[in-house]
């Protein structure tokens, strides 16, 4: 603390009391400890509107990514490549990308279990909606009409051929893709001859 021209830590903390970004408080217990925290700045209306637009852009970016996810470390580069312009955190009123993505909870989520290999992925609700749209497009392209029956395996093979990866149930928030299919609104699963078929409505 002598580097800052004071004798002890209390003097140093006392000098922070008039800082508009740092809040100094004492915990309720009877210790001599201090609690330092950063003041959270509220977004302006313009920043909030830009954040809503950004949420849509992130969904667009992730819907085209394998398993609706990308590594956190590749997000900025992928965003720039896809949209042709930089992701400027200051436009949204944030200093860190992780904070901006946390503001999109319900749309995207982050896997924080492994700091080095963190992934950004669509929330279960949004992922299922995107998957439903993709399935509907494939059925329309394949059959051209509702009420058609297709083998689930064949449908998933078509999905793999069109989008370039084998969809996993975990990417949709379910144990298997079959479990997720039960919640796709316009299809019905049927079992014939020990094989699963899907009927579109």
What's the order of the H and E elements?
A: HEEHEHHEEHEHHEE
Q: In which order are the strands of the major sheet placed? A: 3-5-4
Morphology call:
elongated
The overall average pLDDT, rounded, is: 85
Low-confidence stretches: none
**Fraction of residues in helices?**
25-40%
Measured by DSSP, the beta-strand proportion falls in 15-25%
What composes the largest sheet? 3 strands, antiparallel
Specify the structural class. Answer: alpha+beta
Please give the radius of gyration in angstroms: 24 Å
Count of DSSP H/I helices: 7
The count of strands amounts to 8
What is the CA-CA span between the terminal residues?
A: 72 Å
Give a description of the structure:
The chain has 201 residues and is α+β, with helices and mostly antiparallel strands. Helices cover 38% and strands 17% of the residues. The protein is built from seven helices and eight strands; from the N terminus they run αββαβααββαβααββ. It has helices at residues 9-14, 45-63, 75-83, 97-102, 124-143, 152-163, 177-181; strands spanning 22-25, 35-38, 69-71, 108-111, 119-122, 149-151, 187-192, 195-200. The chain has a three-stranded antiparallel beta sheet. A three-stranded antiparallel beta sheet has the order 6-8-7. β7 (187-192) and β8 form a beta hairpin. α5 (124-143) packs across α6. The chain is elongated and about 80 Å long. The mean pLDDT is 85.
Annotate the secondary structure layout.
Elements: H1 9-14, E1 22-25, E2 35-38, H2 45-63, E3 69-71, H3 75-83, H4 97-102, E4 108-111, E5 119-122, H5 124-143, E6 149-151, H6 152-163, H7 177-181, E7 187-192, E8 195-200
Antiparallel strand pairs: 1-2, 3-5, 4-5, 6-8, 7-8
């Amino acid at each position: 603390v002598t580097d800052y021209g004071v004798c002890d830590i209390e003097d140093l903390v006392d000098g922070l009391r008039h800082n508009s970004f740092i809040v100094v408080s004492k915990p309720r217990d009877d210790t001599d400890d201090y609690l330092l925290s950063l003041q959270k700045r509220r977004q302006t209306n313009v920043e909030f509107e830009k954040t809503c637009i950004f949420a849509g852009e992130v969904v667009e970016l992730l819907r085209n990514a394998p398993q609706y996810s990308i590594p956190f470390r590749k997000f900025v580069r992928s965003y720039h490549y896809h949209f042709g312009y930089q992701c400027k955190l200051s436009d949204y009123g944030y200093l860190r990308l992780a904070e901006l993505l946390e503001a999109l909870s319900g749309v995207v989520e982050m896997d924080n279990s492994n700091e080095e290999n963190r992934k950004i992925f669509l929330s279960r609700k949004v992922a299922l909606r995107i998957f439903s749209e993709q399935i509907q497009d494939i059925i329309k392209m394949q059959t051209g009409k509702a009420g058609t029956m297709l083998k689930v395996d064949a449908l998933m093979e078509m999905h793999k051929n069109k989008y370039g990866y084998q969809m996993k149930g975990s990417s949709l928030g379910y144990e298997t893709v079959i479990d997720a299919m039960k919640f796709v609104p316009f299809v019905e699963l049927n079992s014939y001859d020990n094989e699963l078929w899907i009927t579109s409505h």
